[in-house]
Amino acid sequence: MSEEYVIDCDVDPYCPPGWAVEEHRKAGKLQWSEDFVQLWLSDEQQCGAIQGTELREELADMSVLNACVLDWLLEHPDLIPEEWKNNSIFFWGTIYRYSDGELNVRYLCWRGDDMGWCWHFSRLCINWYGHRLAALAA
């Protein structure tokens, strides 16, 4: 196993100032490859939208990837698949609580050539549409 492509999903994830980790699903050490991630949408997202709290329940028993994978990809942007640029890729294995009490999930997004890949977040209390894909272990 090439050490440069191993992601330690058991470490504590990055936690932005003013946030707390609500849930972090540890997943051991994972070997990155292009077919490592399966991008997933709920049936409701494919037809319209679903509220984030309901989507969290749907994902409860799935092999969602945590924010350690997100942060590793940001350190290795050349390994992020080109086809991800038109979507927001969510890492539901780590749920954060913001200082206002709202739950959030961080996601990977492309901000153009001048900014490149970065992370942002969405609140679970909003509607989630079809461009908000969950990252699962394939």
The proportion of strand residues reads 35-45%
The helix content is 10-25%
Structural class of the helix and strand makeup?
Answer: alpha+beta
**Count of runs of 4 or more consecutive helical residues:** 3
- Count of individual domains: 1
* Average pLDDT figure: 93
Indicate the low-confidence ranges by residue numbers. Answer: none
- Rounded to the nearest angstrom, the radius of gyration is 14 Å
Shape: globular
Distance from first to last alpha carbon: 18 Å
Q: Please summarize the sheet with the most strands.
A: 7 strands, mixed
Order of helices and strands: EEEEHEHHEEEEEE
Plain-language structure description:
This protein is 15% helix and 36% strand. It has 138 residues and is an alpha+beta fold. The chain has one domain (3-137). The strands form three sheets. Strands 2, 4, 6, 7, 8, 9 and 11 form a seven-stranded mixed beta sheet that branches. The longest helix is centred in the middle third of the chain and has 9 residues, at 67-75. The chain is globular. The two termini are 18 Å apart. The mean pLDDT is 93.
Compile the SSE list and pairings.
Blueprint (H helix, E strand, L loop, with lengths): L5 E3 L10 E6 L4 E3 L5 E4 L2 H5 L2 E2 H7 L8 H9 L12 E3 L3 E5 L4 E8 L6 E7 L3 E2 L3 E6 L1
Parallel strand pairs: 6-11
Antiparallel strand pairs: 1-3, 2-7, 4-11, 5-10, 6-8, 7-8, 8-9
